[in-house]
């Protein structure tokens, strides 16, 4: 894969990367002392400041896939990748700031919930909770595996490091700090990674503007790009695809990706959770433009690449001096390690508090210390399993196929009953609607992707639309509304008390 003429990485660059890895491990060690209970491990004890929750939410939402798969799309198709890849998230998180952020926080403060799926047993029933827990956890193994593979591609492109060793190196460092420190370690490393990423992004955009002739490159670049590169939509990424992605990302980034729900739950109160969501939304609308500007300019600097996914690495090598390349590489690592650490923490919460007590009666009587130990074991196991799957990513269709075709299409059916079940407008929808809508969406995806070989827009759009129709339709046709559901939804809406 390292055949695009990319030169060796300088010792200064390796020093920068090693220093970054060392800092992450130190933060994990420091955070370890703050973790006394499983609630500290999973939701930071509900003491995370809103600005840290917002930055952590933002950093946990995207990974090195941005610098590999999305950079490849920017190289071949232009700015469309910003509109469906990131503007859709910014819009979705802004919607979620008013619909979901406060509700997630009240699940913790009013019901003592410490896992994103813990409330589903009360909202629906245990079987509905379990099918969502098992399917979502399985999907995240493949999602996280694609992130490890993306980092490995970057290391291979920069320095010729074999893909297997790239997966092992980044996975091991992440394993050390997130197993030790839980959500506190995740959030604090997210903040440190945000600072490093900001420095790396500014260095890279400065180098690109210098190559374009100065600050005027910000507005003169666009006329020099290949035809169609300034269009928000293309033949592959259509208007329908963009609109569906807004719907998918609204559900995914407000709790469908369980790790992001934890950021809302970890804030001290509902108002702080909402402010954190608005901060994350603003960052998603603005910051990706800074990071992606060099990607948009890549066809002018490194034309004719056989593998577009190596374009960002090739540009970095061509434009930056030793030391600065290591800074940019550390910034790329920061994305993946932030997302994977938070995913691992969320999955371990679901395993410890939702799945294991159903499978093993003794787990229902675990002490706080035993749950904390179990959470760490689950975190370790999840990361190791995802690393093993990452070694097979090339046989699963590659990074973009996993992230877009698998995760985007399957996250919808899993998210619909989880997120809509929190809203009062869907109080008639019960366990039957949840399970049928989940199953209907997954079956639809299987038929489209494996049976009909449908195009990308249909593969992403149809499963979530089928799930929505089934969930809402069953609620209207066969109401499962109960007094218990009404009471729960009133509390989530901010009512002062649960009726007796």
TrEMBL record:
The record's Gene Ontology cellular component field reads: plasma membrane
In the bilayer, the protein is annotated as:
Multi-pass membrane protein
Please list every transmembrane segment annotated in the UniProt record, as residue ranges: 12-30, 50-75, 81-101, 163-185, 191-209, 282-305, 373-393, 399-421, 433-452, 458-478
Top-level taxon in the UniProt lineage: Bacteria
> Gene3D superfamilies annotated for this entry?
Sodium/glucose cotransporter
Task: Kindly provide the name given to this protein in its UniProt entry.
Answer: Na+/proline symporter
Any one of the GO BP annotations: sodium ion transport
Give the chief site where it resides.
membrane
Q: Which PROSITE patterns match?
A: NA_SOLUT_SYMP_3 (PS50283)
In terms of InterPro entries, this protein maps to: Na/Glc_symporter_sf, Na/solute_symporter, Sodium:Solute_Symporter_SSF
According to its UniProt entry, this protein's organism is: Saccharopolyspora kobensis
Q: Which family does it belong to?
A: Belongs to the sodium:solute symporter (SSF) (TC 2.A.21) family.
């Amino acid at each position: 894969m390292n055949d695009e003429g990319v030169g060796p990485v300088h010792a200064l660059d390796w020093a920068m990367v090693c220093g970054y890895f060392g800092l992450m491990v130190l933060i994990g060690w420091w955070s370890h002392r703050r973790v006394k209970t499983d609630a500290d491990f999973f939701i930071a004890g509900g003491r995370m400041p809103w600005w840290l929750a917002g930055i952590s939410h933002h950093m946990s939402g995207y990974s090195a896939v941005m610098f590999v798969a999305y950079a490849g799309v920017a190289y071949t198709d232009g700015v469309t990748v910003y509109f469906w890849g990131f503007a859709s998230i910014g819009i979705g998180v802004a919607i979620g700031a008013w619909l979901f952020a406060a509700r997630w926080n009240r699940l913790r403060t009013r019901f003592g919930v410490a896992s994103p799926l813990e409330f589903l047993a009360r909202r629906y029933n245990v079987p509905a909770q379990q099918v969502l827990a098992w399917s979502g956890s399985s999907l995240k193994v493949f999602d996280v595996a694609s992130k490890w593979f993306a980092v490995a591609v970057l290391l291979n492109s920069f320095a010729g490091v074999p893909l297997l060793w790239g997966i092992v190196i980044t996975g091991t460092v992440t394993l050390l700090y997130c197993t030790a420190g839980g959500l506190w370690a995740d959030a604090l490393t997210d903040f440190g990674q945000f600072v490093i990423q900001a420095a790396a992004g500014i260095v890279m955009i400065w180098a690109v503007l210098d190559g374009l002739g100065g600050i005027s490159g910000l507005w003169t670049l666009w006329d020099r790009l290949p035809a169609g590169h300034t269009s928000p939509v293309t033949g592959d990424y259509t208007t329908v695809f963009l609109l569906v992605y807004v719907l998918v990302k609204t559900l995914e980034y407000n709790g469908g990706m369980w790790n992001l729900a934890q950021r809302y739950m970890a804030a001290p109160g509902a108002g702080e959770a909402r402010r954190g969501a608005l901060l994350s939304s603003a960052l998603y609308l603005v910051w990706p433009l800074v990071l992606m500007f060099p990607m948009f300019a890549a066809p002018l600097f490194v034309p004719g690449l056989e593998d577009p996914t190596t374009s960002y690495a090739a540009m970095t090598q061509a434009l930056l001096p030793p030391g600065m390349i290591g800074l940019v590489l550390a910034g790329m690592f920061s994305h993946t390690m932030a997302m994977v650490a938070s995913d691992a923490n969320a999955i371990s919460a679901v395993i410890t508090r939702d799945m294991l007590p159903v499978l093993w009666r003794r787990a229902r009587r675990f002490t706080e210390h035993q749950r904390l130990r179990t959470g760490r074991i689950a975190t370790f196991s999840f990361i190791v399993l995802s690393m093993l799957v990452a070694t097979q990513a090339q046989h699963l269709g590659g990074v973009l196929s996993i992230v877009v075709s698998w995760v985007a299409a399957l996250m919808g059916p899993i998210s619909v009953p989880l997120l809509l079940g929190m809203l009062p407008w869907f109080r008639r929808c019960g366990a039957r609607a949840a399970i049928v809508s989940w199953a209907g969406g997954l079956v639809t995806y299987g038929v489209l992707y494996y049976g009909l070989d449908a195009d990308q827009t249909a593969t992403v759009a149809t499963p979530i639309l089928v799930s929505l129709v089934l969930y809402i339709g069953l609620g209207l046709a066969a109401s499962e509304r109960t007094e218990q559901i009404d009471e729960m939804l009133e509390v989530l809406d901010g009512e002062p008390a649960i009726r007796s």
